[in-house]
Write a structure and sequence with these properties.
Length: 237
Amino acid sequence: MGLIQAFSLLKESVAKMGITSKAEIEDWFTAKTLGVSGTVDLLDWGSLIDSRTKLSKHLVVPNTQTGQLEPLLSRFTEEEELQMTRMLQRMNVLAKKATEVGVRLMVDDEQTYFQPAISRLTLEMQRKFNVEKPLIFNTYQCYLKDAYDNVTLGVELARRECWCFGAKLVRGAYLAQERAHAAEIGYEDPINLTYEATNAMYHRCLDYVLEDLKHNAKAKVMVASHNEDTVRFTLRR
């Protein structure tokens, strides 16, 4: 009874967000939708590539002053929604083709003010296509202060949701842009303060993934580095 009440409250809360109709919300809370994990993902991959879904409904953020959810892209035109839908559909086609021919699809990284959306979509592809083996690889930039948190989160999600973790580890390529943007907007610099700190972060992330590989033969990592010390570190491990 407690679980039923919890679902009822959750459905009411989701309905208040205005994401979709109450009838559609009812369809989310079925045995088929919940799956083995018992979780509901509001940004379900299937719904994202469905041309009938209004993407702007899902792209909402809380207003810290009012406490209400507001559209992240309030000026999304119908044409822009259509363009994003086409982009997502192309990603799906590429992932399917990679699965058919047995090649790896590595999603590149960008600046931190773009990367969360890229990583989120990559995660959805991993959930869908990395069932038997890691075909979709996410890229982790180790010059970021939160690189280790991002890597460990990816490994833990794969473990809990029973898909194969795939990662490409890089140092990063947007140091000047990141620091300039942080200074301009007024938030904390996301980049490690020193070159040595970035090296330590890279090796920490790599060490964690390699340790996971000992217990999970299906997980894979690409050491995308020209750094001789990192190559030696990898070979020693």
